[in-house]
Design a protein that fits this description.
Rossmann fold; 2 domains; alpha/beta
């Protein structure tokens, strides 16, 4: 064995030992552009969850994610608020001024309630149902058409987070199921996915869907209504989605609202005992007021971050270890 070869072998062994000693969380933090945006209540527990996710590999994994301001950005680099599914229509120049006036008035009234950290969930729920029902009624009243929606999406300010396209492609390539669970509008969010060319076959959308007449005008919304605080097993009552994902005991759950925390509740109880769910919360708005409750409910909180870099790093690690 030559001296050069022995030095190389020695260096390799040292590097491997350092890597083994370094926690997964520490490794991920190094990869982040702004690690200070990461807030974790219990780092030890997160490390354990990451270890189990890596151990299970891509074959045991599923992803459950919210859409508005989770897969999509909350704001542009110059600080402009990005569109939600409803916002795409509400802020469009293709709708009449009167339509915009009505929907903006609804948002001004109800959005502060959604993010109010002093109100209880029980106080918020009836008001959120009121908001959603009234917004849907306005869309039906103005008979918005399929082709208008497509054009509105093209011209909208609804953008996927930086790196989200790559993450969705990676998930598709490894056949990891993705559930997009949204209180927005299914037809509109699918149109955004199509525009971004990421409407992959591994994606299942559970959301509020519109019905159209023979002239492609909206006539009604399908029931039951999914609002931001009933995104749990009730909204999936008649679906066999989770039951069909037998081997997928581990999950990554992503959301930007406390209403997203229970999106995994439809997973079978056996999965909950054997598997692990890592919950990542994007804290976009009212950051200092809402941080404590976000940290209480999500394993990892990302403050004011418009990227999917954390997801990229976690997923790469899960996939990399499976290859070795
Ligand atoms: Mg959201």
């Amino acid at each position: 064995m030559s001296l050069q070869f022995r030095i190389k072998l020695f260096q390799h062994l040292i590097n491997s030992s350092i890597q083994m000693l370094q926690s997964i969380l520490a490794e991920i933090k190094i990869g982040l552009d702004f690690p200070e945006k990461l807030k974790i209540r219990d780092p030890e527990n997160v490390e354990k969850k990451l270890e189990r996710l890596v151990e299970g590999g891509p074959d045991c994994l599923q992803v459950i994610t919210d859409f508005d301001h989770t897969l999509t950005k909350f704001k542009t680099p110059d600080g402009l608020r990005c569109d939600t599914c409803h916002g795409i229509v509400d802020n469009s120049s293709l709708v009449e001024e009167e339509f915009r006036r009505k929907t903006n008035a609804l948002r001004d009234k109800y959005y502060p309630i959604e993010v109010d950290h002093e109100m209880t969930l029980q106080q918020k729920i009836p008001l959120m149902i009121e908001w959603y029902t009234q917004s849907q009624n306005v869309l039906v009243e103005y008979r918005v058409t399929k082709s208008q929606i497509k054009e509105m999406v093209l011209k909208s300010r609804a953008f996927l987070r930086d790196g989200a396209k790559e993450v969705l492609s990676m998930l598709n390539m490894h056949r990891i199921p993705v559930l997009i669970f949204s209180a927005g509008v299914g037809n509109i969010l699918e149109s955004v996915l199509e525009r971004e060319q990421v409407h992959f076959p591994n994606i299942k959308v559970v959301s509020n869907y519109m019905d159209f007449d023979e002239c492609d005008r909206v006539t009604s919304f399908q029931k039951p209504l999914i609002h931001m605080f009933n995104k749990n097993e009730n909204a999936l009552r008649h679906s066999t989605y989770f039951a069909e994902l037998q081997s997928r005991r581990n999950a990554l759950l992503l959301g930007d609202s406390l209403g997203d925390v229970h999106m995994d509740h439809g997973m079978p109880s056996s999965h909950k005992e054997e598997g692990v769910v890592l919950k990542i919360g994007f804290l976009n708005d009212k950051i200092s007021e809402r941080c404590p409750e976000f940290m209480e409910n999500f394993d990892i909180v990302l403050e004011d971050d418009q990227s999917f870099k954390l997801m990229q790093l976690i997923l790469s690690r899960i996939i990399k270890d499976a290859k070795q």
